[in-house]
């Protein structure tokens, strides 16, 4: 019984504030615009100039109304890395796209160069004439001679084999990452063009109103609660 009285008292206290808050959030904001006076009026026209912010906003709305991206053209432009972002006029995305492509390109070239060195050394050391094919000497201990290849053949061969497999794997993963970046850039251009006219309403309001529920079957008393509604 005490809990119900506390809930009822809380509802009565919060009801005026919640109603006033919701009314304030629903009242539209009005702007005072200077009235236009004709040349024949006896009153001198106002010398107040329009606000620059209004002019910029009107010009921006006019430009958006005149140009809208096409998703098909965005995909065609996106086959060129960064072309879809240029077509959609999202120039701030270009450093991200081009930076990702440059990182992938560097990873591919560096891992491939390391792979080629390890692969050549492993091939020469495992070949029939490691004494004359001496690319493996780069990975041998300091002071090693080509004539002493049998001394390093077993241990160095396993090291070269691990390096060969390691850099080949990461070179292939870098190629896969490049394909993914390319696909994501095309997908971003397409989605950006499709959602260009998608309007996000600025009316984001939350209404909190006390609510009294009717008695339900088996419950003879009223139900007290709070109703929350989100407008977006």
Secondary structure: elements and pairs:
Layout: H1 2-26, H2 52-66, H3 71-78, H4 83-87, H5 94-126, H6 149-194, E1 205-213, E2 223-231
Antiparallel strand pairs: 1-2
Helix pairs in contact: 3-6, 5-6
Please explain how this structure is put together:
It is built from six helices and two strands. The protein starts with a helix and ends with a strand. The longest helix is centred in the C-terminal third of the chain and has 46 residues, at 149-194. It has a domain at 71-194. The model is unreliable at 12-46 (pLDDT under 50). The chain has 232 residues and is mostly helical. Helix 3 (71-78) packs antiparallel against helix 6 (149-194). Strands 1-2 form a two-stranded antiparallel ribbon.
- From the spread of the alpha carbons, the general shape counts as elongated
Low-confidence runs: 12-46
Query: Roughly how much helix do the residues carry, as a percent range?
Result: 55-70%
* Number of E strands: 2
Structural class: mainly alpha
Side by side, the strands of the main sheet go 1-2
The separation of the N and C termini measures 38 Å
Specify Rg, calculated over alpha carbons: 36 Å
Largest sheet: 2 strands, antiparallel
Summed up, the helix count is 6
Taken as a percent bin, the fraction of beta residues is 5-15%
Element-by-element helix/strand order: HHHHHHEE
Question: pLDDT average, as an integer?
Answer: 73
């Amino acid at each position: 019984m005490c809990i119900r009285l506390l809930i009822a008292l809380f509802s009565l206290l919060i009801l005026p504030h919640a109603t006033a808050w919701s009314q304030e959030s629903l009242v539209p904001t009005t702007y005072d615009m200077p009235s236009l006076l004709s040349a024949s009026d006896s009153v001198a026209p106002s010398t107040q100039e329009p606000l620059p912010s209004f002019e910029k906003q009107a010009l921006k709305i006019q430009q958006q109304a005149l140009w809208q991206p096409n998703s098909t053209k965005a995909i065609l432009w996106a086959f060129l890395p960064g072309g879809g972002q240029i077509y959609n006029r999202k120039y701030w995305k270009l450093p991200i796209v081009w930076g990702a492509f440059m990182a992938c390109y560097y990873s591919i070239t560096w891992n491939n160069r390391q792979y080629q060195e390890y692969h050549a050394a492993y091939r020469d050391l495992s070949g029939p004439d490691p004494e004359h094919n001496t690319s493996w000497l780069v990975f041998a201990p300091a002071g090693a001679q080509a004539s002493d290849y049998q001394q390093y053949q077993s241990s160095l061969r396993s090291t070269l084999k691990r390096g060969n497999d390691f850099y080949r794997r990461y070179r292939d993963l870098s190629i896969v990452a490049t394909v993914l970046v390319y696909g994501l850039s095309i997908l971003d251009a397409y989605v950006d063009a499709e959602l260009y006219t998608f309007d996000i309403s600025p009316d984001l309001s939350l209404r909190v109103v006390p609510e009294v529920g009717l008695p339900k079957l088996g419950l003879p008393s009223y139900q007290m609660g709070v109703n929350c509604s989100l407008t977006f």
